[in-house]
Design a protein that fits this description.
By secondary structure, the chain is of the alpha/beta class. The protein is built from 6 helices and 14 strands. Strands 1, 2, 3, 4, 11, 12, 13 and 14 form an 8-stranded mixed beta sheet that branches. The longest helix has 18 residues. The two termini are 25 Å apart.
Length: 265
């Protein structure tokens, strides 16, 4: 028996949300997706998430939302991080911080899916060790389910790859987020863990990482701080579909996904 999981890359602003509203439900139905995870740390104007946006994403058939270094940008979400188990923040933030970093959620078919959200430390603001946090989360979730998906939200490719190898055989998949550029290194590691360095970006791709090209170029060239407005063209959903064996918890297949206004790859 198999279970199909869709992991969606960083949702950027209103364009990213809009294409999910238009396309996600039909894709989930057509591809027999059992569970959908999405990183939404850029969903509100490119930075953070609001309560209303989280509710809308759940209404589009997103089953779990992971975050990253922008999780604290919108204070209104703090209470929801406590009360809404489907909304995660990185597990390697302080245990005194709002919310939780891992959870087990049941599919409509009644099978529990474990999700772990981690934050890298290379070129990022200070955080606790993601490897120790992963160990603790895997230990607890393994009591509840043999299917565990890890969102490693990190800047450095090396750190994401290291986490994949570190957790190989202990989780079903490690998927990278944060850099907004989909990588072509999807694979199943030797002990059965699916892996990709970055899921990519759900948002406007005629852009610089989702932001207006002129704004970013002006800032880079002049070195003067400039507001980075969200771009609007070439909207896509990017991520991976992972097929997992229910009995073993091992990944059997991982495939890159790209959904545009006109269809999908």
């Amino acid at each position: 028996m198999q279970i199909n999981i869709l992991a969606i890359g960083d949702i950027v602003g209103q364009p990213g949300r809009k294409i999910l509203e238009k396309k996600l439900r039909n894709f989930i139905k057509e591809q027999n997706i059992d569970f959908c995870i999405a990183n939404a740390e850029n969903a509100a104007g490119g930075s953070g998430i609001t309560v209303d946006i989280a509710k809308k994403l759940f209404s589009y058939d997103v089953n779990a939302i992971t975050m990253g270094d922008h999780v604290w940008k919108r204070k209104e979400i703090y209470d929801s991080l406590q009360s809404e188990q489907r909304l995660l923040r990185p597990a390697n933030y302080s245990p005194l911080a709002h919310g939780r970093g891992y959870v087990a959620i049941k599919t409509k078919g009644g099978h529990s899916i474990g999700i772990i959200n981690l934050l890298g430390r290379i070129f990022m603001k200070p955080a606790d060790c993601p490897f120790r946090a992963a160990d603790a989360a895997v230990k607890e979730l393994s009591k509840l389910t043999n299917i565990i998906i890890v969102d490693m939200h990190a800047e450095a490719t090396s750190e994401k790859i290291a986490m994949g190898w570190y957790l190989d055989g202990r989780v079903s998949a490690v998927v990278g987020t944060h850099t907004h550029v989909q990588t072509s290194d999807e694979k199943i590691l030797p002990k059965g863990t699916g892996y990709i360095t970055d899921l990519g970006m759900t948002g406007p791709h005629e852009s610089i990482l989702g932001r207006n090209i002129d704004c970013v170029l002006k800032s880079i060239v002049t070195q003067v701080p400039t507001r980075y407005d969200i771009a609007e063209k070439d909207i896509r959903i990017e991520g991976v579909a992972i097929t997992i064996n229910k009995e073993t918890g091992k990944a059997e297949k991982i495939k890159r996904i790209r959904i545009t206004e006109n269809g999908y790859d």
